[in-house]
Queue: 2 jobs
Job 1
Amino acid sequence: MSITASVQPFRSEHRLTLSYFVVALIALSIGLLMGLFQGLEHAGINLYPVLSPIIKSYYQGLTLHGVLNVLVWTTFFICGFLTFVTVHRLNRPLANLRLGWFTFGLMTVGLLLAAWPLLSNDATVLFTFYPPLQAHPAFYIGLTLVVVGTWLVLANLVLTYRRWRKDNPGVRTPLAVFMSLITMTMWTIATLGVAAEMVFLLIPWSLGMVGGTDPLLARTLFWFTGHPIVYFWLLPAYVSWYTMVPKQAGGKLFSDPMARVAFILFLILSIPVGLHHQYTDPGVGQGWKFVHAVFTFGVFFPSLLTFFNVVASLELGGRARGGTGWLMWIRHLPWGEPSFTAQVLAMILFAFGGISGLVNASYNVNLAVHNTAWVPGHFHLTVGTAVTLTFMGILYWLWPYLTGKALWSKNVALAQAWTWFIGMAIFANALHRLGLLGMPRRTAIGASPYLPLQPEWQAILPLVGIGGSILFLSGVLFFLNTVLTPLLSKQKARVEIPVAEALSGPEEAPAILDQWRPWLAIAAVLILIAYGPVLANLVATTPLNVLGRRVW
Ligand code: HAS
Ligand code: CU
């Protein structure tokens, strides 16, 4: 299926996707700006006294940075993107467009509700909002509405899929749709944790309806959602790596059935692993932490499958374009295409993010890195690059497709992808090293009284500022293109939606891979095993008696 912008079907759906993207981009622009200030602070350039009429502290900026980048930019981009993918690959309109707009409205209202206390410094609780830090109720209520909105996105996609299924009995679900549905289904199950945390603990507590809360129970419910959220961010990037990038590389997807297996593994293994964020928390039995550690190594596996499948697909592309030799095919890949280049650079840094994830996941080694700068080093390679740079790469074709205007500047886009790659390599490497030297995360380190005692940190900290500044510059280049494409670009877009064929196609996948019930049942059983006793014990024994604190 190749559709150019001049003969676009699904115009209403496109407007919906575009609306999600606009909100996502606004969030990212503010989020990135906050990141610049943090990077500079680490390098000894403290701008917060100047910023204080707007941003009261490093920690308010950090909260905005985390919430806007990892909760808003990702979620709004994903809801728009997966809707687009499903509609196009099924080649039918959204089952309920009005529900689609209602959902978008609900999520935007939720976002505005949460944004108000964030901006007025009444929700400086960081993106994990751990109690006893207590935010204004609007923050919790707003975020809850955003989550409810994502459930409605799933509902709409499922309705659309079921209509397609009725008309196409026995046909294999198109891979990209299969992946989109798995992503949203996994996410919906995962959000039961944070929904329970909000509805039973944080909202009544912040409204003063109950006397207290419990940090451990709240954190455990948070990480029930908080780990799988990272795959909610990653899997849409994988949708592109598997079903679009091979086509952009000039080749085919190596194996469609293996891609399905990887996604099913994510469906069943993404959730029962959250305790790997709580290895150091007292009050949860060590045996249960060990169970989660084992499952974490399990969920590493589908990314290894992805590594193999995606690189094999790139190789097919490089060879189809005339490349030969063990590695020389890499040179023949379309490095002049910003969408392709951004995504492959994202993959390369993700390999390193995966390795640091493995260190985090190792029960005992985690003690050396937990709560240090190593962890933000890890997640800037994963969500900050594998996901964000991929989404930017997707926008390099999808933004022109949706706006009808050719990309304002391909060269600026290429420079953007490379500056992100270089800036992040410097930035994340510095944070990983600082983490190994014991530097704490989430700390205004430049202002800390113990910094003068740490010459080793001081030697590396300027790199955080340099890397962060390059990243900010890269962000500016990105926004030049997104803003100027619709405003200044004279040429009409001639964009083909990249749809990769598979070398080993869907018909070779066993039928069970296209069924839902067995996998959902296994997912439920694993969650019950990993979380049932832990949560039952906490709920039964925890007194809700901790008062809220405002320490900012
Ligand atoms: Fe993580 C903490 C373990 C993946 C995000 N993680 C975090 C936090 C975030 C985050 C935000 O076990 C901090 C939360 C907080 O605020 O406290 N993580 C893992 C593991 C993986 C992993 C085992 N994380 C991610 C992804 C994220 C993300 C993905 C976001 C999108 N993480 C942890 C643990 C902690 C943690 C502990 C808690 C730490 C602590 O103590 O607090 C794995 O899923 C990683 C698997 C990845 C791979 C890489 C595969 C490579 C591919 C690319 C191949 C293509 C190439 C291109 C190289 C195995 C698929 C070749 C190019 C050519 C041209 C040929
Ligand atoms: Cu995790």
Job 2
Amino acid sequence: MCLIPQDESAKKKSRVEGRRPPPLDIRSYKFHRKLGEGSGGKVMLASFAPKKQLVAIKIVPKKPNRCNYPWISMEAWLSKIARECPFLCHSHATFQSKAQAFFVLEYAGGGTLYRMISRKKNLPTKSIQFYTAEMVVALQFLHSNGIIHRDLKPDNILVDNDGHIKICDFGIAAAGMFAGWKIRGLAGTPGYRAPEMLSLEAYDAGADWWSLGVIMYEMATGRKPFVPSLDPAKEFLDMKLTKVDYPSHMSQEMLDLLPKLLEMDNNNRLGVNGNIREHQFFAGINWSELEKRTTQTPFKPKIQPADKLKEIKPGFCAETSEENKLEDFTYVDYNWNWQE
Ligand code: ADE
């Protein structure tokens, strides 16, 4: 039997049942629909009820023996760093219940690049130039902070309510990757993984530049340059044997840039070797304007207001517990204007 002194048990009870500040209480949010499946958990469209403000909530179940706690903490830390870059998805708040960790993320209402590519097949060169340039800014920001994303793919690239890019999902990112550091381990998604990762060598930020090359190719053609496989050795072999098919409709600048990103030798890959911003493909981009988010976007999505969306009841547990607690997790971004 567990004997808890009377006053201790009362303290515990009030912590469990007491009302938390609205942004840190799952009961302050209305849920509308599932947006997708992220690394470690699902992402739901929700609204912060007091202000009818749309947000995306990533829900990560806490695993037994705390085995996914280091990943959850890493993602929380990265989502704080992300707010320094306009092309990374910011988190408004993070909090937890006994069973789940919640990430309240800014909602990007333009959908994913995956959906855009599936619908349009090939995007206009101007749009590819714009989206790629914003991704370049985001990647250079991450890399200069010693972070590699490791799972760049069109499903993780969102278009926000103004039509700008937001890279999301830092669930498998690697930190501490400053110049000269390399990491091992297969990560990411078939079709987007760099050859050095597939051949189980140590890799660095060059792996993200490879994925960017794959994404650009997909935006331009509606298909992938190499055959994805769950078997890394098979995928690697296909890369070694395939001569990439560059269609004749691609611009000369893109035809010059893509092989420099889809370069098998990561030491020679553009991004690692040379500044990609200087490539002719980006001629006409005013990088300082772009970084300020003042460049005109290819399109501006229409967003349905929160009160026009139907509500679903996913039934999360709001109860907290000292036993399964993630330390230093709970946080509200001071820039989030959540007060009524
Ligand atoms: N899918 C995953 N994360 C999302 C977000 N923050 N906004 C919109 N859709 C998403």
